[in-house]
Amino acid sequence: MFPLSDYLDAAVRAAHAGAAILQQHRTSPNDLVIDHKGRNDLVSQADRESEDVVIDMLRQATPHIGIIGEESGGARGAELTWYIDPLDGTTNYLHGVEHYAVSIGLVAHAGASDAMGNPLAVDTPILGVIYDPNREEMFTGMHGVGAWCNGHRIQAARIESLAEALIAIGIPMRDFSYIDPYFVALKEVLLHSRGVRRQGSAALDLAWVACGRVNAYWEQGIQSWDVAAGTVIAREAGAWVNDPYDPKASWPESGRVLAIPPALKDEFLGLIQPAMMPVFNR
Ligand code: IPD
Ligand code: CA
């Protein structure tokens, strides 16, 4: 059995410390060292310093847990792994758009037992912490226990029809190989929903599904650290969260993600799968 609340405390403290570094650098953005990891893939000194402090704190508090971080890589643990995104929304951050977060998720691997002592059949995100330092909102989620924003319980919106749904999306920005089928699928989403928003932080998109500000979130081509924390938070708030193209996936580790109220899932899959399945399920 895991002392989940101890892990939660450690992750909350680490998220605050990482975010403090991000906010310090915001006052002198022109002095930041910025590197290009690839096309439209930026990393700054702020990302790196935030990740260093998050990793140091988690290592000290939980030395037996594996760590995978966006900037420094790392390795899975035998039973548990932290997935760290020290700055989700780097492009927003570097352009002065105040919409980004620190995201820390904990995944328990198949065979480990959950917080109640039950063995897990599949890899499962069991803890999530997403901190938005601009709104001072700390989103947390614990597998089987619940989801909160600043200590208040949150729930995904209970809506019955896609026509009432506001959808968060991530438009491809690095891999454009599937851009044509993507826009075919997006057209269907536009025609059947209340509208879409591209906000630039996968972690906050998931947190916002969890608290009902948006009703669904759909993206592909991202990374496990972008979605580990948000998966458990949105699931605990009542959303279905997984890879929309792989029915066998236990969580959207592939970086292909749909988060949506269960009542709307099949209708949404019916809109995107015809164009997208041939791309991702070859
Ligand atoms: C990005 C954000 C963005 C998503 C990108 C991600 P990063 O993360 O989550 O919303 O569309 O694909 O890479 O690079 O800012 O940590
Ligand atoms: Ca990220």
Please characterize this protein's 3D structure:
With 282 residues, the protein is of the alpha+beta class. It has 7 helices and 15 strands. The model has no long low-confidence stretch (mean pLDDT 93). Helix content is 35%, strand content 26%. The chain is globular and about 50 Å long. It has an 8-stranded mixed β-sheet, sandwiched between helices. It has a 5-stranded mixed β-sheet with strand order 12-11-13-15-14, sandwiched between helices. The longest helix has 23 residues, at 4-26. It folds into 2 domains: 4-153, Fructose-1,6-Bisphosphatase, subunit A, domain 1 (Fructose-1,6-Bisphosphatase, Chain A, domain 1, 2-Layer Sandwich), CATH 3.30.540; 162-280, D-Maltodextrin-Binding Protein, domain 2 (3-Layer(aba) Sandwich), CATH 3.40.190.80. Helix 1 (4-26) runs antiparallel to helix 2 (45-61), helix 4 runs antiparallel to helix 7 and helix 5 (202-210) packs parallel to helix 6. It binds D-MYO-inositol-1-phosphate and calcium ion. D-MYO-inositol-1-phosphate binds next to strand 5 and helix 3. D-MYO-inositol-1-phosphate binds at residues 85, 88-91, 170, 173, 200-202, 219, 222, 226.
